[in-house]
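Re: the request from the purification team.
They wanted to know what the chain is likely to look like in 3D before they choose a buffer screen. I agreed to run a prediction and write the result into the notebook, where they can find it.
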Amino acid sequence: MALSLTVNGELHSLDIEGDTPLLWVLRDELGLKGTKFGCGAGLCGACTVHLNGQPVRSCSTWAEAAVGGEVTTIEGLAEDGKLHALQNAWIAEGVPQCGYCQSGQIMSAAHLLATNPAPARDDVVAAMTGNLCRCGTYSRIIAAVESVVESSSVENSSVDSSLAYDAAVVREIS
């Protein structure tokens, strides 16, 4: 069955079954390896992507649910080769330990800041509750989100040049 999906602003025509989990379409069909498989049941948040601006668990979202919509992955947060402010904050705060859950964490944080550019700490904690981190870097995750809130608005994701990492380098290590 041919399905057309828009992922990170690009339209893709794919010969896949509609009930294929979006996670496997992203990873296996499109080569976008930033979105991770965690639990396979939509419980851990490692596979979080945005569908029409809303966070969804791609391991339990069928590909056909994305037809006619817009999927954004961790790779799609960067613009013009510059990482999103959250990605830079993650690096600056040293959030990742093993790094496995981080793309889902960042996608959840990006949704929070898109809908609430000035969240209180309790809002940050509540928004991140659905994402598990086996390494327990929760305090660094909160610090990274709060640093973005404190330093600039989400729309102005320019950061100090000492923190501006090239998106291609980060993709290489993910």
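For the purification team: Residues 83 and 167 are 5 Å apart (CA to CA).
Please add any questions underneath this entry.
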